[in-house]
Amino acid sequence: MISWRKHYKRGLIAIGLLLSTSASIYAQGDAKNGEKLFKANCTACHALDKQLVGPALGGIVDLIKKEQNLDTDWLHKWIKDNKALRASGDKYANEIFEKFNKTEMTAFPNLTDQEIDDILAYTSNPPAPEPAAEATGAGAADTNSVAALEAAKMQSMNSKIILLSLLAIGGLLIWLLLKLKQLVKLQQTDELTGLNATRAVSFGDLYRKYDYIGKGILVLLGIFAAYGLWNWLMWIGVYKGYKPEQPIYFSHKIHAGENKIDCQLCHSSAKYGKVSEIPSMNVCMNCHRTISEYNGKYMEPGKDKAFYDGEIQKIYAATGWDPSSQKYTGKTQPVEWTRIHNMPDFVYFNHAQHVVAGEQAILNSYNQKNPNAKIDVVCKACHGQVDTMNVVQMANDFTMGWCIECHRTTEVDMNNGYNKEYFKNLHDKLKKQYGSGAKITVDAIGGLECGKCHY
């Protein structure tokens, strides 16, 4: 009996020590701060609930304790400098390195021990999402749905009001015509009746009698027809507002607006080349290799999380990416994007010339002309407020006249390094021609020469 009590007490002491140890591990870190640190440093390669580039980290403290009998000190060493840990001959560190295709994890020597404890606390006991934030997101979605419904009702009501108004106006006109006809009949006398009998009653007789009026009308109709044809010809190829449906839905508002992704991260050749190319799917995979679902707060009316998640799966199908094994299968599906902006073959336009050499001049000119809609990125001067567009559309006419107007009103920064060197011998000539304090616009340095755009 004494022996049994002795072992019983020892068991309670052991359980107490184990519980206190576990509690102390989690108590050391602040899970809320750990969540911020995890999102800032770890989400590129890790998630809590699934494998990405690296293993799932949910419950990692208990896992390595159970499977490898390792404590948080080992995790500290691994996070701060896993390369040094592997070089020391640590068996488990090298096993992980081999298991994940010898992908070397980024070292984080800048993280303090307390910050690492915060991250580990988050992986062990992630805080529940704040109800207020969820309610806000749901409320926003509900508000959008209600607003869309109210707008549809209002539009339907307006259409009915307009239709009823037109019917009322039509009825009033018919009533007036009937009344006028009655008045004419009342005022007709025998003398007027006899006079009316002698008047021309056929269209041919009427035309011969007033042929000069008919010829004048025909001339006017010919002029209007010629103008209409000329106007139609002038607008061939002008597609302002054009926004085709794409094979994979891509919201610039989410990427460039909500997430503040720079235009040139995807359209990198706009700065250094003639054409701003459509990014390859590999560019998308730089981020979406680890972002397999949409968790943003913004929802476009009529869209939901399932819709956005489905579009991400289309990216995986196009690139042949298997998210479960985190490997490319080699089975790709080319994406047939519909091009929106496309200059004619006889027009030369160099993106780099505008984005680099003309950047500040274009920004200054645009913001002076549009003080209530200033822009911070030179791309918006031509392509509009892309960061507010769910579906990108052609924001301007892109006609020859539109370009010439810009060249005539955009002042050249003659003091920047490029212009100062390139137009070194032109400065004196421009000062003599336009005056020392004159505003030098792009047309003054050859911006209206035919050969600059049509070669």
TrEMBL record:
Claim: Glycosyltransferase is one of the keywords in the record: no
Pfam families (UniProt xref): Cytochrom_C (PF00034)
Domain named Cytochrome c: residues: 29-127
UniProt keywords, alphabetically: Heme, Iron, Membrane, Metal-binding, Oxidoreductase, Signal, Transmembrane, Transmembrane helix
Signal peptide: 1-27
Oxidoreductase among keywords: yes
PROSITE patterns linked: CYTC
Bilayer-spanning residue ranges: 161-178, 217-238
E.C. numbers: 1.97.-.-
Enzyme class at the top of the EC tree: oxidoreductase
GO molecular function annotation: electron transfer activity; heme binding; metal ion binding; oxidoreductase activity
InterPro entries linked: Cyt_c-like_dom, Cyt_c-like_dom_sf, Multihaem_cyt_sf
Domain of life: Bacteria
Coiled coil regions, renumbered to chain: none
Cross-referenced PANTHER family: CYTOCHROME C7-LIKE DOMAIN-CONTAINING PROTEIN, LIPOPROTEIN CYTOCHROME C
Protein name in the entry: Menaquinone reductase, multiheme cytochrome c subunit
Source organism of the structure: Chryseobacterium salivictor
Chain's gene name: qrcA
